[in-house]
Amino acid sequence: MSKKNQTLGEFIIENQQAFPYSSGELSRLINSIRLAAKVVNHEVNKAGLVDITGAVGDTNIQGEEQQKLDVYANQKFIQTLTNREIVCGIASEENDEYITIQGHNKDHKNKYVVLMDPLDGSSNIDVNVSVGTIFSVYRRVTPIGTPVTMEDFLQPGNLQVAAGYIIYGTSTMLVYTTGHGVNGFTLNPAIGTYYLSHPNMKFSEDGNIYSVNEGNYAQFPRGVKDYIKYCQAEEDDRPYTSRYIGSLVSDIHRNMIKGGIYIYPGSSKYPDGKLRLLYECNPMAFIAEQAGGKASNGFKRIMDIKPTELHERVPFFCGSKNMVEKAEECMRNAKEK
Ligand code: AHG
Ligand code: MN
Ligand code: MN
Asked: What domain of life (predicted)?
């Protein structure tokens, strides 16, 4: 059983033994993510010191300006995941196309694909606010030893075998699930070791924080406006307060610890919202559900959506179960009107 102060290394070994048929590859994959996260953490911590911040000049497929650290984190995660014989393909928010790690080679036994947002909340770097990395892992569906295809990446979230995030905050934490609850590990930077600091993380059923970019209020669908008004109403001394960092990882992390809902809805300008189903919403949904919370597009479970393209976006409602259900009720009622 997990013990507080256990190191991530010890935790991985102990939990691998709990699955007698596991070949240890998933453990090695998590291990390589923890390594890349340390390297990226080191660089993120230096962001204010060296001239590494600022846009690199490129725009990614979504037409957004890339920050230098986005590119750096992307490279580090790709390198680390490629150099081990576990992963056969990677899709990243920063790459237009997926990356094939093994071609036609029957000796390659690599069976996992990784989808990631290497640096989330990147617009916060220049102002010294927490950023993160989000990852999602699936078993490939095409035969081992052949090149990966789009089919391997366009799997619904309910087939994820692992997902997690790293938060580069006041402390750096790795939080992940392999479908057996959610555990959080804090990095001791002096010795480069992660310790189990948050075993068995849970979203409380009810929460009092709602997190949404209210600057877009005028463009929100009726249901989201109604939910915000519900939270703000004086009736029954409603307990709600608003917190929004603008960094999904940080907003979800805080809400999981304190209880709350995160909403990035569709809008009149952007009907599918901003967040990406494969790199952001599915992994966060897996974590939320494993922590007793819920994740929805306002009407249905995020993890039941069958993706149709790599960089697909989706409205996102995620957090404490009762809060998400109340928001869904507002969405339903507004639709029926
Ligand atoms: P990224 O830095 O990977 O592009 O993600 C930014 C995302 C997410 O982290 C955050 O919740 C959201 O964008 C904030 O968007 P707004 O600034 O529109 O509120
Ligand atoms: Mn992001
Ligand atoms: Mn990003």
From this structure: Bacteria
Q: Is residue 300 part of a domain?
A: yes
* Residue 324 lies in domain: 209-336
Output the pTM of the full model. 0.94
How many angstroms does the Cα of residue 3 sit away from the middle of ligand 2? 32
Residues 6+ apart with CB under 8 A from 106: 145
Does 3 reside within a domain? no
The Å distance, Cα 246 to ligand 1 centre, comes to: 6
CA of 328 to the centre of ligand 2 (A): 23
Please indicate whether residue 69, judged by its CB atom, sits closer than 6 Å to ligand 1.
no
Same-domain pairing of 192 and 242: no
Ligand 1 atom at shortest distance from the alpha carbon of 279: 3
Q: Which residues contact 169 (CB under 8 A, 6 or more apart)?
A: 130, 250, 253
Q: Is 177 a domain residue?
A: yes
Which pLDDT does position 68 carry in this prediction?
Answer: 82
122 lines ligand 1 (CB under 6 A): yes
DSSP assignment, residue 128? T
Q: Which residues surround ligand 2, an ion (CB under 5 A)?
A: 117, 120
- 163 and 40 share a domain? yes
Q: What is the CA radius of gyration of the chain?
A: 20
User: Of 15-19, 20-24, 80-84, 250-254, which gets the smallest average pLDDT?
Assistant: 20-24
The sign one gets for the Cα dihedral 161, 141, 34, 281 is negative
Same domain, 148 and 271: no
Task: Cite the DSSP H helix spans in 46-144.
Answer: 68-82
